[in-house]
Batch of 2 targets.
Target 1
Amino acid sequence: MLIIIVASIISQLIFYLCPVIKTEQMSAQQNPTDTFVNEMNTWHGQTLGIKTVEALRKNRFEASFFETRLETANAVIEMISPGMEVAFGGSQTARQLNLQQLVLDKGATILDHNAAGLSDDQKMEVMRRQQICDVFICSSNAISIQGELFNIDGHGNRVAAMAFGPRRVIVIAGVNKLVADEDAAWQRIRTVAAPINFKRLNRPNPCTKQGICMNCNLPTRGCNIYVATRRKPPMMDFSVFIVNDSLGF
Ligand code: SF4
């Protein structure tokens, strides 16, 4: 009788624990379909990334393609020297690469218009100084495979610095920001980049409820200046780094 009871308990334990064991095994091992999907996405990123870099070079940008975040961050930091003044254009991509800390570690100074405790006047003053910094680092809302950059801006400080002023501009973009052409670039900005960015900023704009641009006219609208950068500005050093990863939005 005892043997029957023990066998029954063991069988029930196996019944209840097996799904847990299977799930843990699945998460410990890579799902073969995940591996295959990753390989396909890596191929697609490489193909579009390299094509875009070639187009950017034809448009006279210094462009490079990197497979990893680490390679990209190293390439950026090689361009930074101690004592330089470096500014960032509100880039989540730069934060994902930990560039702010790496720049400080290199002995450069950061002009940060989002530093805690700044009044509007002080913030404006920092943004004005950013326009003539040594290196301005930002991302782009979209980059077409024709090698052109597309951006919207609220205050205009980011797109102004991308157009003229800093000694060097470095634009870093994940392959998730590559698009087929100009129409697709503005489409990406209306449906992905802007709504997520204003959600990040906790704006009460309709895009943060609908998930796409509703062309609002609120004072909190952040889409005021629309800029296409079709060729490198002639007197600036301008690097565009494409990373085979999904970065920012
Ligand atoms: S125009 Fe208004 S609704 Fe459209 S993305 Fe910009 S802030 Fe959002």
Note: Residues 194-195, 198, 205-207, 213-216, 221-223 surround iron/sulfur cluster (CB under 6 Å).
Target 2
Amino acid sequence: MPANSPGPEKQFAFEIIERNSKAVALLNDSIFYFGELGLEEHETVRLMSGLLAKEGFKIETGVAGFPTGMLATYGSGKPVIALHTECDANPDNSQVSGVCERKAIIAGAPGHCEGHNSNAAVMVAGAIAVKRAMERFALAGTLKVFVAPAEEQLLSRPYFVRDGYFADVDCAFHDHIGGEFATTYGLTHSAAVSAKFIFLGESVHAATAPWKGRDALDGVMMMDAGMAQYREHMTPAMRAHRVVTEGGLQPNVIPARASIWWYFRDATAEGARLLFEQAKKIARGAAMMTNTSVEVEVLSAVWPVRGNQTLAELVSGNIELAGMPEWTPAEQDFAKALQVAAGVQATGLGLAPSPLKGPATQRAAANDCGDVSWVVPMGRLTFPGNVPEAPFHHWSAGSALATSIAHKGAVAGAKALAASAIDIFLDPSIAARARETFAVEIGGTKYAPLIPLDQKPPLDLNRAEMEKWREKMRAHYVTEKVEFA
Ligand SMILES: [Zn+2]
């Protein structure tokens, strides 16, 4: 396998990434402190696209109708390799980095407590190294770099795929932070449909003439009751969970409008679709019995994520080549103290990459990169930028994200990512082989987007929340400029 011999091209890429380890760290930290929610990643994308534009990538913004969707392209012709990842934060996840306690930078503000900031830094650093290697060694082909907004809302990549952005792509790679340096193949995540059910009734004084009103909140509650009854008939991998997003304004006014937002999940796209269809029946029943009406708004719908075995073998070889970062005793002590504070086993930081195992055990969680993985062979890289077992979206998974642990993990991740793309540019027969194994892996499954064909992305999900905090957060932005030498 070419992955097991560094070769001058990969050596060259590794040197670029190492030489720029400070830029990688600054990029990682800049995005951490932007702490931008999905669809509001304006500062983040401006920084990423600026760096890639300076390298000579052609930048397209507004991908698939997303203002923060970006595609940076370098080169031309075959093979076409795509890198894609997310960069969004979560609400109320503001967390001071480098401490072993829950401590917000700004109480209540959004922040990174998973590490999508590092995902973005790895992708940009990896892309710059690949581009420079393509230039230096005259490697033919096209490198496409996608920033996918609002992964936490499972939002953008199904739209990218539906709108043809992956139509000419031969292989794709997705990088994601974790507590280990690893890759796998097979089904890793489940399918999900995210939809809002809006019940509409009629307001009236709830004491003086309630018989004249039609209570939209009753519709929401009856739907919830109907779904609870239906759980008995759900298959084991199905999941349904919800929040009530509107429930009226005050008790003496019968609510004319109420809404409930659901995620429906299953191991297969078809299963998630069937569960959604059942939920729509229950909603119609709830509307009928409460004299209300119901409108259904699909926010997003994603296929399960799958990893291709050929690309997993390639990535695994490059993980070995990049090697686990060498952690200092201080980093190990911090990691263990953080694990104790998070209530997980104090194993410290991993000392070696995880050997390739597969097929993966499919998780109930979803990632919106799933759709990509059913139209092109996809390799998935987990890089060791966070403390093992720190639970995502918990403060403890934010505490290492602007420390040397994230910085070293990002450098290692960028190397493995860059090396994997370089391998295919050097030997496009790997892409052909990945296509063959991909065809066997998906079998007879025909991909069709789960999102409606005419669906427009909802763009204002997080606008009000982000506007509430952005000015206060600006005071914490990293002021030093990110520059790749
Ligand atoms: Zn994630």
Note: The mean pLDDT is 97.
